[in-house]
Amino acid sequence: MPVICWFRRDLRLTDHRALYAAAEASAGAVIPVFILDDTILHDGYVGAALIAVTLAMLEALDHDLQQRGSRLIVRHGQPLAELQRLVSETQASGVYWNRDYLPYAIKRDSAVKHWLREQGLQAHSFHDSVLVEPEGLKTKTEQKPYVVYGSYVKRWSELAYHQAEQLVPAPSKFVAPPSDLASLPIPSLADLGFELQQTIPQVGETIAQQRLAQFFDRRQKLSVLKYTKAREVPAEAGTSQLSVDLRMGTISIRQCLKQAVDLLTEPLNAEQRQGVDTWLKELAWRDYYTQLIYHNPYMLNGSLDPRYDQIIWRNDPSEFLAWQQGQTGYPIVDAGQRQLNQMAWMHNRVRMISASFLIKDLLIDWRWGERYFMQQLCDGDPTANNGGWQWAAGSSGPSAQPYFRIFNPIAQSKKHDPDGQYIRRFVPELANVPDHYIHEPWTMPPAVQAHVGCVIGRDYPAPLVEHSFARERALAAYRTALQTND
Ligand SMILES: Cc1cc2nc3c(=O)[nH]c(=O)nc-3n(C[C@H](O)[C@H](O)[C@H](O)COP(=O)(O)OP(=O)(O)OC[C@H]3O[C@@H](n4cnc5c(N)ncnc54)[C@H](O)[C@@H]3O)c2cc1C
């Protein structure tokens, strides 16, 4: 009897635990299914770029399945109802899927599981998308979920690394779904009511494998071996760029881990070893935020530490618009926002700077920024994005970034983009500004402004706010909220 493999954020064939188990259980008679779910598509949270990459990944997945004599069955509707229809149409003996830890997914999946069990059908879910599941790591003494990343990551490493030995291959054999089993064509973005303003990366399982291989190719100028320093330079492609692949699972997290763990067995110098170790710790952040939201789902709408919800934000709509459009007058922030608006992706260092600027310098509610990022990013992930924003807001409890540590956008810019290469790439009106002024163009004497063709207030905005004033204003707002709610 066939079984259904329900694809969700795992759009690949290799090292896909649910697919592998489904193929083993059915001698290859797997019905590969993807359901376009209006609740996710039209909740106003997910943007065109993420939908566009997902559709491209579905095309690639269907292509890869067809190469193996199968095909992707696409349906559109409410997942439980669609699965009920599919079970009845195919007489499948059960449904297999990889677990997702977001509140909506948990509710959706438990309804599916409940119905399947009621019918006497198989419901099998698998640990796949993270290295350590949220229930799999609690504090030793009290068995409580971790809140502090530093303590989490120490134990995480002990548990995560052995997953590198637990990869499964793509199924060797597929029996094609019945030819009369209906499938919708994979829709276009316009069919779903979205319009893409950005360029998006090439995606699909093959591309993801190539990206991973390139990042681990020691001959590359900027491989993982240089990661510790290179990741701090937004002008360089010093990071893996795998976030889009990990977001929708065109690569498995274990494939990433395995590359790193294998490389650590080779002779490496201290800098190279540190590069790999640092990258592994980034993978840990991904698991950490997943478990943080799993155990504290209210974080999706508010601060982990609720006292921070008492901050009185300024929430000035015109300043928010200027930030969105990369018109704040702070070149590093504007470069980041324009990178986001053009490429649906932003370098991590600049995500931190830009988020901090919106929250602390403009005193705009971090949730406004979080939503905007989600709507623009092709790697937009509710857990990593929420975590990143709460980290920047200092609102995630005993954070590595307490609220009083406020990024200075000028100092950050000088440190991470010293010659303004990144700024000039995304803010072309500053292209001819001398290095000396690139981080603070408003300090250019009028004659220099005229000479380089960048008059502040005409060609490029004056700063929206003066940083040291904004810093004190933010500290006062935070202190008031925390004191009145202690
Ligand atoms: C305000 C803010 C918002 C963010 N929003 C997202 C988001 O929506 N989606 C997203 O995947 N990442 C997000 N991040 C984390 C990080 O910026 C991106 O994962 C990273 O820039 C992606 O580039 P990369 O794949 O080259 O990363 P690499 O540096 O190569 O890291 C490898 C992988 O580790 C994971 N990772 C790295 N850093 C983090 C982190 N801080 N938190 C969680 N996972 C991490 C990602 O899956 C990434 O692909 C956000 C960070 C901040 C500060």
From TrEMBL:
Binds 1 FAD per subunit. One of its GO terms (biological process) is response to light stimulus. InterPro entries: Crypto/Photolyase_FAD-like_sf (IPR036134), Crypto/Photolyase_N_sf (IPR036155), Cryptochr/Photolyase_FAD-bd (IPR005101), Cryptochrome/DNA_photolyase_1 (IPR002081), DNA_photolyase_1_CS_C (IPR018394), DNA_photolyase_N (IPR006050), Rossmann-like_a/b/a_fold (IPR014729). Keywords: Chromophore, FAD, Flavoprotein, Lyase. It is an enzyme of class 4 (lyase). PROSITE patterns: DNA_PHOTOLYASES_1_2, PHR_CRY_ALPHA_BETA. Pfam families: DNA_photolyase, FAD_binding_7. The record marks W313, W366, W389 as: Electron transfer via tryptophanyl radical. This is Deoxyribodipyrimidine photo-lyase. It comes from Herpetosiphon aurantiacus (strain ATCC 23779 / DSM 785 / 114-95).
